[in-house]
From TrEMBL, chains A, B:
Coiled coil: none annotated. It is a multi-pass membrane protein. The keyword Transmembrane helix applies. It comes from Morella rubra. The chain crosses the membrane at residues 20-42, 54-71, 83-100, 112-136, 217-239, 273-291, 303-322, 342-364, 385-404, 416-436. GO terms for molecular function: potassium:proton antiporter activity; sodium:proton antiporter activity. This is Sodium/hydrogen exchanger 2. The keyword Iron does not apply. It is found in: Membrane.
Amino acid sequence: MGFGLGSVLMRLGLRSPDEASVDAITLFVVLLTSCIVIGHLLEKSRWLTESITALAIGLCCGIVFLLTTEGKSSHVLVFSEDLFFIYLLPPIIFNAGFQVKKKQFFRNFMTIILFGAVGSLISFAIISLGSALLFKKLDIGFLEIGDYLALGAIFSATDSVCTLQVLNQEERPLLYSLVFGEGVVNDATSVVLFNAIQRFDLSHITSTITLQLFGNFLYLFFSSTVLGVAVGLLSAYIIKKLYIGRHSTDREVALMILMAYLSYMMAELFYLSGILTVFFCGIVMSHYTWHNVTESSRITTKHAFATLSFVSEIFIFLYVGMDAMDIEKWAVVSKSPGTSVGVSLILLALVLIGRAAFVFPLSFISNLTKKSQNDKIGFKQQVTIWWAGLMRGAVSVALAYNQFTRSGHTQLLGNAIMITSTITVVLFTTVVGGLLTKPLIKLLLPPPKHSGNIIFSELSSPKSFNIPLLANGQESDPDMGADVPHEDGLRLLWSTPSHTVHHYWRKFDNAVMRPVFGGRGFVPCVPGSPTEAIIQ
Amino acid sequence: MGFGLGSVLMRLGLRSPDEASVDAITLFVVLLTSCIVIGHLLEKSRWLTESITALAIGLCCGIVFLLTTEGKSSHVLVFSEDLFFIYLLPPIIFNAGFQVKKKQFFRNFMTIILFGAVGSLISFAIISLGSALLFKKLDIGFLEIGDYLALGAIFSATDSVCTLQVLNQEERPLLYSLVFGEGVVNDATSVVLFNAIQRFDLSHITSTITLQLFGNFLYLFFSSTVLGVAVGLLSAYIIKKLYIGRHSTDREVALMILMAYLSYMMAELFYLSGILTVFFCGIVMSHYTWHNVTESSRITTKHAFATLSFVSEIFIFLYVGMDAMDIEKWAVVSKSPGTSVGVSLILLALVLIGRAAFVFPLSFISNLTKKSQNDKIGFKQQVTIWWAGLMRGAVSVALAYNQFTRSGHTQLLGNAIMITSTITVVLFTTVVGGLLTKPLIKLLLPPPKHSGNIIFSELSSPKSFNIPLLANGQESDPDMGADVPHEDGLRLLWSTPSHTVHHYWRKFDNAVMRPVFGGRGFVPCVPGSPTEAIIQ
């Protein structure tokens, strides 16, 4: 496949802009294909994951470009925020919602929100304050207070893909759902926070503005969720009402994909958080819509969404890798390399501290509210959660571009340093963090059968896995009566308050929601859920 | 869903370019969703097909835009050639190759090439000559000889989607495969022809240039086919060699989609015909690659490709409809409405004549070579073929934009008239032709059981349906011996020459190709082919 790249490099000078885009697309398709093939060959490797492979290939490609064209062709490589937020992120987040084990997710909902929202806010505060205090001692250009707050938001956006690739969802459902759920809520929190900061005049912060900021944040959080749920329900209703004959699989699949994307774009249109919207749209679609379509459509959508998400992820890592080698942004910084290294180190330290500052205290608080041992988060698991959120990814890069390229591109020293430092931190945490993740997790969490404590905590109460909120597993009966624990309502509310909420939700779901919007048990044939394999 | 459009219109003035693209995407997603829902509701209609619905919705939308913004927002609507040729056309053509009934296609291969390539050349010659002679009498701007030849290529590109939506593949395999195959080969021919014309200096045509043109045409035709077959075989080989464990459906699906797209982009990169390449890549992929993947991947790719193609088709019609209402290009023309109408009428007449000039003579020639009655093309079927190719579609629009916007956009009278006339002809043929297709086909070809002649010709020789080239049906045994007709080789060659080619191809396929590239019978589980339903 090497000749594709060779011919691209050869022809770059000869082609019109249209034709250059043909080159760029071909190059990206070739690279994506190589990433998938190489990723498959390296699957058994002790250190490498698919995302690091993609990042490395992207970096190599960037270097080859740089050497061959002597910095002339940086145009092909510039990171496009639009491409990222409009095309690559939505399928990843939607698929996350679509394939999430809803039972686990809602069971740990409060802990996830605690980590994802409150934790991100703590991390945001520490990084903003820290950078505002420490950067003054370094010789960088003028930064406004809004820039420091933006930095906080940029660096509180974690990227837990690496860890999730290593963690086994079947072996450690609690840990997986926490890391996974925190990742999604954290993405949404930092983007919402970032947008809120950009929209307010922060030259003089008063308590009123702080309150408004917080109000805006809550408003975005809730309205985005409501929009996602609404679009998801609408899709379920349309497909249930119209597709009685259900003779066109293509139409069903197209409708599901289009409406999922619609939820994201509508959120963006109304200045809400598309990430949250499309995530909840995915959850609702897998609970209702997915059960209203034919079996072929189910298999198709399940794998098509996963494939889209998979390709988008690889694309992003490839892109970040290639973009890092874009020479233009390094030109300004190279005059003061010491400052740039200093900024990167400070940011890295703040990231480490900011994360430790909430994971351990919040775990402690979360553990206080849990009665049973199996719901508590052990110390080793806390370390894993802390570790999983150290990596910074494409969201940080995209937000950094948004904030620091608005006034005069990367020509200003301050802006250029911020962008290159973001890239440095992203590359460093992803590569070093990514390489160490597999060994670290093997060390901290050996396979369950060798770890007495964890296996005990996970197996001691199998019952707790049988109380679903949005029940979706094979074991849950569509007739909800069978699922109610054998205790009376009042005692149940006392001992496991959230389980009781689940109980009443299921009652409501079966009595009101399912008859209108379809779902498991309200369609002729009842296979598994999107999270479970139907045909392997 | 009306509020989406309303808010788009409301905000168009207020947004930055980035945000305007969010508006445009949301609008298109909403419109696509409506087209699918409305198309489903109108399915039983006597007149309407999905493509006309999409075109009508696009037109309405364009009118609403025009009225609301008073012509200011034409930017959202401008037809982008890149979008069409890089993103929308490849999935449609690939899916055509992937889902084609290969047996029928290769059985009628010579007739299809005759209609698609030779026929398109005849049509091209008549339209070029006719327009060169007739346009001189009208008062339009200066047109070069290259422009007239380009017009010939533009208007020899047919769009048989409408007819294919109405024809039943099971009831009339011969007719369907002819119309379908001609459509694909015709698309490729006209695009290749168009590119060849643009690349040569045509100010003074000599016999050398004509010969070069023809040589270039043949070169493009064969090299494109070879490239498509090569990429298809490579994908089959990679997936067969690497995916022994076959534990990742997503990787298989991603690889198939990426390599299909890669074949198209590589053809474009090497200035070949992407349409032909991706079509043959689709055929090879459905014959080899598709059999090397897991059953989930098979179901997923089959429906995912069909869905992509379906959505792209609707998108194109919607787009052409909206673009037709773009005010800028009508402004210049409105000064001389008579000329514009005259040009459109002349083109329409030339299209009708050009098509008749080859369908009936070539059918006659084709019938001469056929021995058995069932292979001959009856008069009513000839009329259907003639009718199916009258519609002009997005390929014509895209080529017209390419030719007539290069020198000074639509400000020049000649260019403006050519573009508006193309749109007029496309709209007229698609709407009028599309509306009449269903009734006409019902009139010409009533369901087989009432049409003695046709049922006879189709059932008299069931054997002929059992001799596959790239055999793929359920009835064909992987062990090829069973398929050889009970006649000796020489007599067979005499009576049915093309069947004998099939016979030796199958021998070669089983002995050499399948062991290397996989395919039916060379993978553990053997379900149906992409053209057959597995789970309905």
